Every structure is written in structure tokens, then in C-alpha cells.
Amino acid sequence: EEALREAVRLKPDLADAYFNLGLALESQGKIWEAVQAYRLYLDYSPEAGDRAMVETRISELEQRSGGVHGP
């Protein structure tokens, strides 16, 4: 997680780093942060081939958590 956070800090338009950060955060149970990372991935990669899958994952995470709320 820390290496990925550093990657997006150094190069904020690095879309794949946001996706991977989302995966790492999700695996740690940090749902809100994962959703934010996935959204940034989609923002920086609007033509992503996996866009529909990521949007579905965001929806699933929001439903599972009863709605996503920030800290």
C-alpha cells in the first residue's frame, strides 16, 4: 500500500497505480479508500477496457458497506 501511495504522489496521473492501490486497500478492508482509488483510476483512464468491471466493483463495495462514507 505504501509503495502505491508513493507512486500516485509522485505521478498523480498514473492510472494503474490507483487501480492497484484500490485492490490493496480493499484487501485490507479499507472500503471507502478503495472506492476512492478505483474512481481515480477511472478518472485518469476514461477509456479503460475494464471500466464496466471496475464500476460494478465500486457498486458492489458501496452496497456491501451500506453506502460509502469518508473518514
Average the pLDDT over all residues and give the rounded result: 90
Low-pLDDT residue spans:
none
Helix-strand string: HHHH
Beta-strand residue percentage? under 5%
Supply the number of helical segments: 4
Write down the overall geometry: globular
State the share of residues found in helices, binned by percent.
over 70%
Number of strands: 0
Structural class based on helices, strands and sheet pairing: mainly alpha
Rounded to the nearest angstrom, the distance between the terminal CA atoms is 18 Å
Structure explained in plain terms:
This protein has 71 residues and is mainly alpha-helical. The chain is 70% helix and 0% strand. It is built from four helices and no strands. It has helices at 2-10, 15-27, 31-44, 51-64. α3 packs antiparallel against α4. The longest helix is centred in the middle third of the chain and has 14 residues, at 31-44.
Write the layout of secondary structure elements.
Elements: H1 2-10, H2 15-27, H3 31-44, H4 51-64
Features:
71 residues, mainly alpha, 0% strand
Summarize the structure in short.
The chain has 71 residues and is an all-alpha fold.
